[in-house]
Amino acid sequence: MIQRIQTVFLALLAIAMICVLFLPLWSKTDPTTGEEVVLTAWNMKSYFLTEQGEPGEAGSVPQRGTIAIGMLAIAAIVIAVYEIFQYKSRLNQMKLGLLNTLILMATLITMLYYAYFVGGDLVLPGEKGTFEAGFFMPLLALVLNSLANRFIKRDEDLVRSVDRLR
């Protein structure tokens, strides 16, 4: 049934991954030049900060596409929403939950790759950037996915125990 607690967890997972699509994931600022590199789910671009700290003109680093992060996030959203409506087949839901765990881990690994290896040497080499709010959303999604899988398994165990009693 749709009104189960795992549906809430899966819906929150989808919302968390939608946030990944729109929030910045990582940033790094060079205080001497005022150039900032920002990683989002769709690109990595740099710009110079104005006196007020607002983004100004484009920076010296060419824009790079990071569409892999966005596509993995969209895949996690689609699987979570599809998993919600597979409530009649709990085994299928568990398989989709495992697949979603793998996709969420791939999203995290891809974000770390772009943050440390691609963006790490762009502005002020040797310094680490800061992780923004969007970076922590896949971690939240992993926790929500594991909670949903736990409650799906609990439902399946309950149904099997009732079948044994008959």
From TrEMBL:
Keyword Transmembrane attached: yes
Pfam families per record: DUF4293
Domain of life: Bacteria
Keyword Coiled coil tagged: no
Keywords of this entry: Membrane, Transmembrane, Transmembrane helix
Annotated TM spans: 7-26, 65-85, 97-117, 129-148
Name by which UniProt lists this protein: DUF4293 family protein
Native source species: Pontibacter chinhatensis
Highest classification ranks of the organism: Bacteria, Pseudomonadati, Bacteroidota, Cytophagia, Cytophagales
